[in-house]
Write a structure and sequence with these properties.
The structure is a single chain. This protein has 327 residues and is mainly alpha-helical. 62% of the residues lie in helices and 4% in strands. It has 17 helices and 4 strands. The chain has one domain. The protein has a two-stranded parallel sheet. Strands 3-4 form a two-stranded antiparallel sheet.
Amino acid sequence: MTSHKELLIATRQFAQERVWLSWWHIASTLGIALALVAIVCSELHLAGRFLASTVLGLVFVRLFVLYHDFQHGAILRGSRVGKLLMETVGLILLTPPSSWNRSHNHHHSHNSKLSTPDIGTYPLMTVDEFQRASRWRQVMYAIQRHPLTMALGYLTVFLYGMCIRPFIANPRRHWDGALSVACHAALLVWVGCDEVDDLLLATLLPFGLASAVGAYLFYAQHNFPGVQINPVHAWDYTTAALDSSSYITMGPLMNWFTANIGYHHVHHLNARIPFYRLPEAMQALPDLQMPGTSSLQASDIQACLRLKLWDPDSQQLVPWSHLRKAA
């Protein structure tokens, strides 16, 4: 095993961006998205338009990860054009820069750390904390970790969680939350002003699908069998990246749609590594080749979703049924 410091230093060689490649990925992804919108709004048979709408939703997932990489400074660092383009994408995708940066930077600095505010992440309580919590807090906790909340991520995680709630809490700091809602609403009105089915297939369905996929991926990246959760005094950044962030195995097509976000343990170790170099880093560094893994198979999704509470005694995430055993 390489020391933590040596491992962090070793990742720096992969944090070198290839600017032309970053622009190619952004331009090609936007081009594919626009082509799919044209198909969805065409006179093609409804089945073909529905298929294009579904693919468009997955392309929106990729666009979001590109925006996520830009906000980390992994791609297009210092580019004014890139900043304008990517922040426009963020506003339309209901991830305004101010609330996204605040919540996501907090998440990277406190990933899988017990007894910290649940900013930019799903809340996590120990079995004992849940048993001692008020009934209202228990209900809210259960709702926040419920699969339906992820499935409705368009409304719960992004519209409310990323835009409306931060704006209400601090309008001066998160004014772009209101701007994001306005931009998104304007897009919906513009697309749906002629045909209602265009509104459904070109916006509501793909945004809903992209939000649900994004909400689940973010959950599974840090809530998977074998994940390690540590109290504040025992928490370490590198350990949290390697043992508390998953590697979600996918085929080449889904890796493209998700822009390699499945290599999440590598990303958490060094967020400046561009998404297209994450596989290269994992292949080159032996210490990155034994992560906790999951997949998009139904059995693995179910295994992740059933994890609800942290049990310090067994040092693992446990389902609700563990409460009956504890009682």
